[in-house]
Amino acid sequence: MLRALKNLFRQEKPRTRKTAVVSGTVEFLETSRFITLLIFVATTAAIVLISFVGVSTVNLPVLTNQLASVRITASAPFSYESREKTRTAIEQMRDRVPPVYRLDFDSLQQFDTHLHALLADLTEFERTHPVDSAFTGRRTADFAALVDAFNAKGPYHVSIDDVTALLNSGTPDVRAAWVDTGLRILREIYTQGVHDDRAFGSASDPGRVTIFQVTRSDGSVVQQSSEAIEQAFSYLRVNIAAETGNRALSGPLFRIFRNGVTPNLIYDRDATLRLQDEALRQLKPVVVSVERGQTIIEPGTRVTAEQYEMLSAQREFLLASGDSALDDGLQLFGRVLLVLAMVMASLFYIRLEDRETLDSNGRLGLLALVVIINLALVRATYAFSSLPFFVYHSQDASILPYLAPTAIAPLVVAILIDAGSAIFMALFISIFTSVIYGNRLDLLVLTFLASVVAIFCSRHTRKRGNVVRASAYAGLTVAVFALLVGVVDRLEFLTIFKHMGAGLLTGLLTGVVVVGLLPVLEGLFKRTTDITLLELTDYNHPLLRLMQMEAPGTYHHSLVVAQLAENAASAIGANPLLARVCALFHDIGKTAKPEYFTENQHDGINPHDDNNPSLSALIIKSHVKDGVDLALNHKLPRSVLDVIQQHHGTSLIRYFYHRAVSGTRPPLPIAGAPASHNPFAPGLEPAPVSETTYRYDGPKPQFKESAIIHLADAVEAASRSVRKITPQHLGEIIDQIFHHRMDDGQLDEAPLTFEELSKIKTSFTFTLLNMLHGRVAYPPADSEKNTPA
Description:
The protein is mainly alpha-helical.
């Protein structure tokens, strides 16, 4: 009575029920081959436009020591001051300026001092040891000590015989005159300069006179000839012999004075630098003229510093002049052929591995859109190389390939479609990225490897944070690969560090971008990810909360069906999360009239008792349309809408159909209506019953998860009528339901095999036996007190 009064006073505003019927325009866009052709042509044109038009080898980020992948030629004549060639000319000029030496007289001054001391010692020795006295052992020892003392004062090797000859040459004044003559000759030799042949590389030609630049006392630098030490000895011998005229005396004197001949040319670094600076001030910067078409960098060779400088000069010239340089290496026809070949290869791959995508223009549009967006972002990073900052800072421009977000499309496809298509998409993006950056093979391998890592790490992603983590692993892969490539190319450590940082940053940003794109692409292309499905399992969802409050019996029924469907989907390799979510929402339409469904009737009142069978069947069938209406209002995914429509298929509402056929429990006659309007009036035969009136509108289940929920819904309802649960009895009921649904043709459009149906039966039996098991009856508390221990 209370429920009747509630229904009586419930005043709802009439509203138009939403339906999930696809319009003709949408169906045309989804299935038309003309639209497929337009997608193909638009994709090809977009890739050609993005990958080739306006792309120039001039702006390719190239570094010294890197292996060139393409030939770069001058697109216009230009001239520039070459710092590299000027630096080479400076080094050559420094090598051509001879070194400057200064004359060192310190060793001559020491020899002079030591020789005069020897003369004084000889005079003293002569006084203490007269000449006419006999050479006793003591006199000989003293004389030898005198000679040793002289030799100890420097690198001298004077013999006793030579000093004896000097002693016997005459009086002290005569001896002093011979010494002065010898020192004068030494001064002449020192003034001319003495050098060591071995030190100056002229040992093979002892007679050669070497010209040196010598610093004078006033600081001026002059060139003069210098003698090798052997030449100085010859000069000393000749001049002493000429001065003495006594062959017996000239020999000992020569052997004494040769100890004073040492190389006296000392390298004057300051004077040499001053002379080099004077020569460099006269050197002008080297200007290089480049003709149009001249090769700047050859493919397959390491980029030298001069080539790198010439390429940078061309970039600066083009930037200053406002000209653009297009790469003429590939003609437009060849470029179109390349893109056509890659797009055709993609279509063949989809035809072989994912026919469903080829039959859906929505999926093809999704693939085309993410490819175009991804390549456009790669092209945008390449376009940065033409900015003035990167033109004048080529080292910084080398990070641009590592900033290219090549993993966006593969990640999106892996999450929205499947991993196989994503891997092919990764190869597709990597090929055109390498083409944009000058056919770099290392970049192709790097980007493809990073994308595959991201795809592998994003499998079965159910949280948005996992997407960022997968892209971060891709960025880490780029960083490691950049380190290895940088070491091989002998790049500077700072440059390698920049490349690694760019790779890591791009990986993180890629994950953020993909997380932001997924909801947009899901809504635009009617795709549903596991992330969205997992969010829908929240029991605080408005529709689930509505079911808990308005139809608790239906809510419990949905929970059981969800568990059955999830386990069965796992058993046959379907999507268990999709099966669970769709099962939770499959009966939300019952919240509109919950009292008309048995699981929500708890007070013994059945509204169907007062209705005729056709009206009851209409009310029962309406929960499908009401469910679709609620699902559309709450923007549930398309797969959930499909299950709501398909979970009963076109099955027969058997209870009310049998009531109509048998004529039992006829409805009350309508007040005031003539007897002819009452089909069960006495004397009239009942009208034939149309089975169509008592069948759901369908469609039949179209995919595995929908078919599983269709079967689980029936099995769960039948299991409630079983009084005693045994494996045999439960198995018989499940077999009966399966055979009946197959005989009725409800599974004709579902892609299920007999083997999968057998696995679904086994899963249902196992799940229900564990859910409906009995428990041991515990005795009352009072009986426990009276029971003896």
